[in-house]
Prior knowledge:
This protein has helices at residues 60-83, 106-115, 126-142, 191-194, 225-242, 253-276, 285-292, 295-301, 306-322, 406-427; strands at 4-7, 13-16, 20-25, 42-47, 52-56, 144-149, 155-162, 168-173, 176-181, 185-190, 207-212, 217-221, 246-247, 324-330, 333-341, 347-351, 357-361, 365-370, 388-393, 397-402. The chain is of the alpha+beta class. The chain folds into 3 domains: 2-80, no CATH class; 125-242, Pleckstrin-homology domain (PH domain)/Phosphotyrosine-binding domain (PTB) (PH-domain like, Roll), CATH 2.30.29.30; 323-426, PH-domain like. Strands 13, 14, 15, 16, 17, 18, 19 and 20 form an 8-stranded mixed sheet that branches. It has a 7-stranded antiparallel sheet with strand order 9-8-7-6-12-11-10. Strands 3-4-5 form a 3-stranded antiparallel sheet, covered by helices on one side. Strand 16 and strand 17 (357-361) form a beta hairpin. It is elongated, with a radius of gyration of 25 Å. 36% of the residues are buried. Residues 86-105, 112-117 and 248-304 have low confidence and may be disordered.
Amino acid sequence: EVDTLLVGKVGPERVPLSEVLHVHRGLEAVPLDLGFPLDNSMVVLELASGRCLSFNMGHARAAEDFALYFRLLTAMRRQETRSQPQRSTKPPDDDDDARSECSVRTATVEQQLHSAPLSTAACQDPREVKKMFKMFKETMRRGRDFYVVEGSGEPYDVECSLSQGHDEFRMRWDFQNRDIPLRDMVQVRTHREAAGLGLGVAMDARCATLELQTGECITFKFGHVEACDRFVVCMRLLVEQKRPRFVSRSFSSASLAGQGAMGAAQGGANAAHGSEAPLSARSAGSASSTQSRSRRGSAAGRKAGSSDSRAMVEAFVRQMVVGCQLSVVGPGGSQQVRCSMDAGLTALQVTAGDGSSREVLMRQVKLVHVGAEAAKLGLAGIAVDELCATVELMSGDCLTFRFALAEERDRFAVCLRIFASAHRQQQQ
């Protein structure tokens, strides 16, 4: 049985094949920053410990054959390890270093780095990040083997890649496939950011979590912190590029009718797409998503006692069922509208002074941003201040409300988050 690579003649170093994370040929190893020039006659083995072994095969054909056969050997070894009845209790380390992608504006890079600074020094320089982003796309288009953390905490080997248009994250395992549109991703979280989601999975600095609109969370474990940071930065840039957004321009009859139809169509498409995508029992989604879907509502509930929260929600429900006047902010300024909800709390009805109206389904509400949090949405022409709450829909549309008091703003945001989370859970 071939399970170990011997390197050297006298006292050879033993390298178990199970420790080989990736086999890089030639310039594929450029992102590893090895400190010496690379050419197409070289092969680099990246190990779980973070070390790299470099081989010069003499010419390109020999390097191509060596890389091909060694990839087959390591893949077969991983398959044998997975098929064994008892797996090691220590999770394997995997450098799920997805480093590749297209062009990106420096301002966008700086915005992402400023919003969530990472530990890796290479991820702090926008110019280096742009190079890394380009490599991320090129590498991921070919596909990489990543470890996905299951609900039980066990890692599972999954081949991941990006579609040709870089708008889908593709996963393949055990003759199964799953395509996740980037527009369906809410956030790419570090282990610290994911700690508050209550996923029940042990995570460290080498873990990154994809949070989907459905509430499902998929956690990846990398071989070292640098690989994890690169994945987080590049995926955040990708998600930001692919996320569609547009602003509610006015509450005229034509505008409301057109935007309502667009929101319904896109929301329906997202819901249908989500229902078609199988939830992998091998991923963190199965066990983690049910615990994470109501995180926003539960986080809000922790701010006050359970009795106070219940009273607040009940008062809000009574007010909205009867109907109340609110101020909607648009490019032309603010205007008074009447807002109400049906008895089932399934939709928010917004009616303008001229009689035109729009219905916002709770299951289509993705996020509710408070105050300056909405600035990251890039709402051109909308003057958002600390007394505003912005409702972001899954279609990309946004509605901004302004309140007289911060308490009214907070109550509105908290209750809408609770209702939206509850209706998304019912859809599952």
